[in-house]
Amino acid sequence: MARRHCERRRNSGAMRTMTRRKFVRLAGSAFVLANIPFAALAESAPGGRAARYGGITPNSDFYITSYASTPRVDVRSWKFRIKGLVAHPLELSYEAIRAMPPVREMLTLECIGNPPGGDSIGNAEWVGVALRPILDRARIDRRAEYVVMRGADGYATGLPVDELMRKENFLPYMMNGVALPPDHGYPLRIFIPGKYGMKQPKWLTELEFVDHQFLGYWERRGWSNSAWRKPNSGFFTPKAGRSGFFSFLSVAAEVKGPVDIVGWSLAGPSGIKRVEISTDAGTSWNQAEIIENRSPYVWTVWKYRFAPKATGNYLVKVRATDGNGVVQPSEDPRTGSGASAQARLPLVVTSV
Length: 352
Fold this sequence. Notes:
By secondary structure, the protein is mainly beta. The chain has 4 helices and 22 strands.
């Protein structure tokens, strides 16, 4: 079976498939790769016009990143197993998991191949069960150092046991009010908040505890084994367009001044502390207004009122600072650990 990673689908049914490395390489050639707008507009949200951005991403618009094709899972025979170095191996049915006390969380997911300003990111409300109580039932052996997480598509990745035991981790079975769509992991997936999506397998079938480090499919190909999310940012509005045949290149957005620039920022468990905007290609910086910053695991929405004094071309850049004081750099070498360079938005101001 051909191995695919970045698999993008939208309402139109169009699909384009590429490897993670090709996706990142193309993204590096453009100021802004994403031109498909986030359809997550929370119209009733308080806080004015800017608050309409950054809400829930509809399931049909949520990005899809997959190791292979979507497996067909028969929930009647499917089981979730915990095995290996545990005192009490477990085998749980879908019905048994759904009968457990539910956990409801809003969580933003991001692909490790998402470039600065990219659209391989989405935010949803998830319902599932807390993982820690299930692990306590299994009683993990002290010899266990790693857990191997496997999915029905054949994908596997590893995690140190102490990271798996975090209270934030859970097993979702619903997405935005419905059972997980097939492309998003039905019947069960795992969330390790603060990590990139490659460490949160879909179509989860088992957790196996072992006494050694386990490197998964992408890790063996040079991608980060820790996969903690780095600070990243992007723009909701204005949005750059595409340049015809060279669709991966951006075309400056035409605006009339003054204009509200609205976007998102996201980091790891330390969250977002500050967001700054430059309208002169990074020569000077001004602090953006934080519209919403509800959790380290949900994208921060920010706004900046740009009031240019003259018409013409401008290059807007954004940089976020996380809770540990790490600031997005101007450039970030592609090393397989996620992209953190400052996103760029070219603007043409037609009137002031």
